[in-house]
Design brief:
There is one protein chain. The chain has two domains: 2-164 and 355-370, Glycogen Phosphorylase B (Rossmann fold); 169-350, Rossmann fold, CATH 3.40.50.2000. Helix content is 43%, strand content 18%. It contains 15 helices and 13 strands. It has helices at residues 15-29, 60-74, 101-108, 117-130, 143-153, 177-187, 209-217, 221-226, 238-247, 262-268, 283-290, 304-309, 322-333, 337-350, 356-370; strands at 2-10, 33-41, 50-52, 81-84, 93-96, 137-140, 160-162, 195-200, 227-232, 253-257, 271-274, 295-298, 313-316. The strands form two sheets. The chain has a seven-stranded parallel beta sheet with strand order 3-2-1-4-5-6-7, sandwiched between helices. A six-stranded parallel beta sheet has the order 10-9-8-11-12-13, sandwiched between helices. Strand 1, helix 1 and strand 2 (33-41) form a beta-alpha-beta unit. It is globular, with a radius of gyration of 21 Å.
Length: 371
């Protein structure tokens, strides 16, 4: 088959982008011709055709809409199926990794917001995928979020197909972990008694990294002195650095930017903090857990249930106070590291968290052949 994959913007450190590339490469390995279309691309390109369709617009939502129009106008006639990773018209398949915009527009904002060009454009793009009369087949990663979409759009159930996570097994606890961990910590400049708290992800505010810093600042002084807080993700560091200065923990914080060694960082870490305000899934949660790192995350994260299912940390309320986050950190750090490693290896052995690309590929092949 000839497949067109679409993504508004590509940058190398996002979970959605990693999922897109993994699925595109698998479809290529299965004998299909895959071309990726995007309006911008950062970082190295894959060994697949990438077509850039730059557009001009005053706003981000305007650029997205303009890209959708240009893509549909230039799409080759012999393409068998279009697989999208952002909401837009013309998709045969949509990989649903974004939360429902209608929920934000109707439940969190006033009617005036829904009159803005951003809201009207975003709602129209979303309806083109989830609307009752749309034809797009939806690859859904969150059962909770699917109910929210159906509340607003009455999306027929037979168009929604649930897929498991697609974590790379190489991120799991290595066989020689006991040897690798101290070596890595020494390379990163960590002292034996340092406690490394990691935060992984871009869009720092949405991920709740400011909440995490406030929780860390609320820790007892003796514990706080041992803590190192490292942030791996692509966003402007000034907001976190300024807040850390206000909280008196600036010397504890290091904003690393986008990183290619996240697996190694996690093998060196003691805890992942992810008190997100909004999170459709949360690949970083699963990557931390299989790396042997306990996780503290808010209940809004689509993958938060894996924390409870496998006893790999704590799930906290979406509006948890600073003291609540601090208390969760202290409780989690009391469990011996060997216990977390054992639970991680049990999770790797028993949880269905690696097969997203295979399941999605089968759904695309079956659905496209029907067309």
């Amino acid at each position: 088959m000839k497949l067109a994959f679409t993504l508004f913007r590509y940058f190398p450190y996002g979970g959605l982008e990693r999922d897109m590339l993994a699925l595109a490469q698998l479809m290529h390995e299965r004998g299909h011709e895959v071309t990726i279309y995007s309006r911008s691309w950062e970082g190295a390109r894959p060994d697949l055709p990438v077509v850039l369709l730059p557009v001009r617009a005053m706003t981000n939502h305007g650029a997205n809409a303009a890209f959708a129009r240009r893509f549909l106008a230039e799409l080759p006639a012999d393409v068998d199926a279009v697989v999208g990773f952002n909401k837009m018209p013309g998709l045969d398949f949509y990989y649903a990794a974004d939360v429902c915009f209608a929920e934000k527009a109707y439940a969190e904002r006033s009617w005036l917001y829904r009159l803005t060009s951003r809201a009207r454009s975003s709602l129209a793009m979303e309806a083109a995928v989830f609307g009752r009369d749309a034809r797009t087949q939806i690859l859904m990663i969150s059962r909770t979020e699917s109910l929210i979409y159906q509340k607003y759009y009455q999306t027929p159930q037979d168009r929604i197909h649930f897929v498991p996570p697609g974590i790379n097994r190489s991120r799991g606890v290595p066989a020689d972990y006991a040897k690798i961990r101290p070596e890595l910590r020494q390379q990163y400049g960590l002292a034996p008694d340092d406690i490394l708290l990691m935060m992984v992800g871009s869009d720092f505010r949405r991920k709740g990294f400011d909440r995490a810093l406030r929780g860390i600042a609320a820790l007892p002084q003796e514990l706080r002195y041992r803590v190192r807080v490292w942030v791996a993700g692509q966003d402007k560091p000034q907001s976190l650095e300024g807040l850390a200065e206000q909280l008196g923990i600036a010397d504890r914080l290091k904003v690393l930017g986008g990183r290619d060694d996240v697996a190694q960082l996690l093998w060196s870490a003691d805890l992942l903090l992810h008190p997100a305000r909004s999170e459709m899934a949360g690949l970083a949660l699963l990557e931390a857990m299989i790396a042997g790192v306990p996780v503290i995350a808010t209940e809004v994260c689509g993958y938060a249930h894996y924390i409870t299912d496998h006893a790999m940390g704590e799930v906290i309320d979406a509006e948890a106070a600073d003291a609540t986050i601090a208390a969760a950190i202290q409780r989690t750090l009391q469990t011996p590291r060997e216990e977390w490693i054992g639970r991680a290896r049990h999770m790797i052995e028993h949880a269905d968290i690696f097969s997203m690309t295979q399941r999605a590929a089968e759904l695309i092949e079956r659905g496209a052949s029907r067309r």
